[in-house]
Amino acid sequence: MAKYTGAVCRLCRREGQKLFLKGDRCYTNKCAIDRRSYAPGMHGQNRGKKPSEFGLQLREKQKARRVYGVLERQFRGYFDKATRQKGMTGENLLRLLERRLDNVVYRLGFAASRAEARQMVTHGHITVNGKRVNIPSYLVNVGEVISIKESSRDIPRIKEMAEIIKDRTVPAWLSLDVNTLSGTVIKLPAREEIQVPIEEQLIVEKYSR
User: Fold this and answer.
1) What is the model's pTM?
2) Is domain 1-49 in CATH 1.10.10.60, yes or no?
3) Alpha-carbon separation of residue 135 from 107, 113, 120, 121, 140 (angstroms)
């Protein structure tokens, strides 16, 4: 499976805002945005020109891809699927991205970042309705129960996260049981429950050109 393997802090700097791609590090003074707020590259500090309408649309699409860790072809697939669903295409797109298993693992607090959540899924530490699922792009449905596999709960990092989630809240469309290290999808997320810095309408305009 293809994936981005470069420095993720460069992605935040390119978008000019924190995308929280490195978990807890993003909340410290080691965050790249706090230290170097300009875009990466030799001309990064000289990009003061106002972006065009196309440029704004492109950046918003790139931002969404980077937040959820999705490559271009897969992202286009989500958009095409969103256009075939009832309702607003932009909201449908974000709802599909939120339903990815790696994102749900992250939203439940089992991982500090989506990248870490993706690794947990691919390494077989996550179950859905009691069955192991190792596909990060698996789309969860209402009523499904996402859990950390019983045999994986003694792994030091997972034990560390199990202590941290006791003080965390989860989105309203999910419920969390800290005692069983499991969460349930109680409904599909509404737009106001999807806390991401993305203007989805710009993405719709980008693909509608």
Assistant:
1) 0.79
2) no
3) 17, 17, 10, 6, 11
